[in-house]
Amino acid sequence: QKTDIGIIGLAVMGRSLALNMADHGFKVGGYNRSKEVTDTVMREHPHKNLIPFYTLEELVESQEHPRKFMMMVKAGNPVDAVIAQLEPLLDEGDILIDGGNSFFEDTRRRTEALAQKGIHYFGVGVSGGEKGARFGPSIMPGGNEQAYKTVAPILEAIAAKAQGEPCCAYMGPDGAGHYVKMVHNGIEYADMQLIAESYLLLKYAGGFTNEELADEFSKWNQGELKSFLIGITAGIFSEADDFEEGRLVDHIVDSAGQKGTGRWTSLESLKQGVNVSMITAACNARIMSNRLEERTAAKKVIKGPKTMEGTRKTPVQKETFADLVREGLYAAKIVAYAQGFDLLSHASTEYGWDLDFGRIAAIFRAGCIIQAEFLNDITRAFEKNTKLTNLILDGFFLDKINKNQESLRSILSCGILSGIPMPAMSQAAAYLDAFRGMPVGANLIQAQRDCFGAHTYERVDRQGTFHHEWGQGYE
Ligand code: NBP
């Protein structure tokens, strides 16, 4: 049988994308390394447009030129293993897509290697998990712009739709799509951490019950914070436990894993010299969460603040406190996105990708985990000013920052005095204060560097670099 596209790897994501394509009328060839997986998919999800193949040769022969394949296998070595098997079977002009969470540098390397043979390689970020893949993900394709036109009808058909537009758009050459997906995940880490800190504040400083938390988050989801993450959070507080009395959330261990895309974002930001401190803080928060044993032991010996005695720590009414938390969260969220888009901007210059930030925000509006009302405002900001250097400087966001930063400071001080860890919100305030030109102490650091290493220093009142013979007390 003839097919329009081949999917290689039929685990949860590959299978869901294959069925999504089949629903949209494309004839899809499905192949998986282990035959049993293919059989299970065909048995459990039979579809007239999904055709199983048990060898790559047959899968390749089922298509007309230019042929199109999408790998949905585990990132890392499995991708290279599939390429090594597939490459000899492909011809010039064929298209090979990697839809997994591959590291963008790997995608750049693979793109270059396959281009030698005239094969168009695409690194495509797919966000939204299993449900997104099955019914409409946000899709970030990177690769050859001409060749993109061949796969665009399939990718845009299966993507989520926001106000009728597909959440799929060409990002740029080689690793651009995977890079955008990586930063998307980094922002997702920061966003989730900010919501977790808001929860801790409301619960431990505000004395909110699960019922009240569910109500409060539902209310937030009607306003400017409306988003997938706030929506599911509201629902989580209402979920009954499967085994015991009470709500499930209170029976879940206080330790969360990570797969690595947040860490990649953080490492990459250090390489680029861009401050994404909130994403890094979110990664570190998960690392700290994993130290359960040490935390349990330390709890017995390290004293908390005196204000932790008693139940409620905030002097204000619950509703007033919730408003402060909502406004502080909104300000911090703006800073997190500003950091993420700053990293994209530097990468765009560094790798020559010419990323369109307004378009990136637009394709995040549906299908993905960070989908939010707020992204419309980001698109508007970058459309209004394509040269915008930092999201915070856009008129709309500047106004919000100026209005909400007092709330951020107020909940931060309340949280710190109550002993509630708020690493991401603290970073938001620190970034804001440094960015708005407050002294950051680098004059003293220059002096120290010149003192111990003769690294020289610069002056405020004259050009050039200077060295001082630091005299006293340094022996
Ligand atoms: P997994 O990441 O669990 O990978 C399993 C698939 O990889 C199976 O089809 C497996 O075949 C295949 N595979 C492996 Br492992 N080694 C192989 C090799 N050497 N040659 C050929 N095939 C090999 O699947 P997933 O969770 O569906 O995710 C697929 C990709 O999508 C990953 O990169 C993931 O990070 C990304 N992603 C996942 C999500 C999500 O929510 N799960 C969301 C967004 C992106 P086998 O059956 O023979 O072992």
Walk me through what this model shows.
The chain has 475 residues and is of the alpha/beta class. Helix content is 54%, strand content 9%. It contains 19 helices and eleven strands. The protein has a seven-stranded mixed sheet, sandwiched between helices. Strands 8-9 form a two-stranded antiparallel sheet. Helix 8 (176-205) crosses helix 12, helix 12 runs antiparallel to helix 18 (423-435) and helix 14 packs across helix 18. The longest helix has 34 residues, at 318-351. The mean pLDDT is 96. The chain binds nicotinamide 8-bromo-adenine dinucleotide phosphate.
Structure summary:
54% of the residues lie in helices and 9% in strands. It has 475 residues and is of the alpha/beta class. It folds into three domains: 5-174, NAD(P)-binding Rossmann-like Domain (Rossmann fold, 3-Layer(aba) Sandwich), CATH 3.40.50; 181-435, N-(1-d-carboxylethyl)-l-norvaline Dehydrogenase, domain 2 (Orthogonal Bundle), CATH 1.10.1040.10; 441-475, 6-Phosphogluconate Dehydrogenase, domain 3 (Single alpha-helices involved in coiled-coils or other helix-helix interfaces), CATH 1.20.5.320.
Give the helix/strand layout.
Blueprint: E1 5-8, H1 12-23, E2 28-31, H2 35-44, E3 50-53, H3 56-61, E4 68-71, H4 77-86, E5 95-98, H5 104-115, E6 120-127, H6 129-135, E7 138-142, H7 145-158, E8 161-162, E9 165-166, H8 176-205, H9 210-220, H10 228-238, H11 261-272, H12 277-289, H13 292-299, H14 318-351, H15 357-363, H16 374-384, H17 395-418, H18 423-435, H19 442-453, E10 457-458, E11 465-466
Parallel strand pairs: 1-2, 1-4, 2-3, 4-5, 5-6
Antiparallel strand pairs: 6-7, 8-9, 10-11
Helix pairs in contact: 1-6, 8-11, 8-12, 8-14, 9-10, 11-12, 12-18, 14-17, 14-18, 15-16
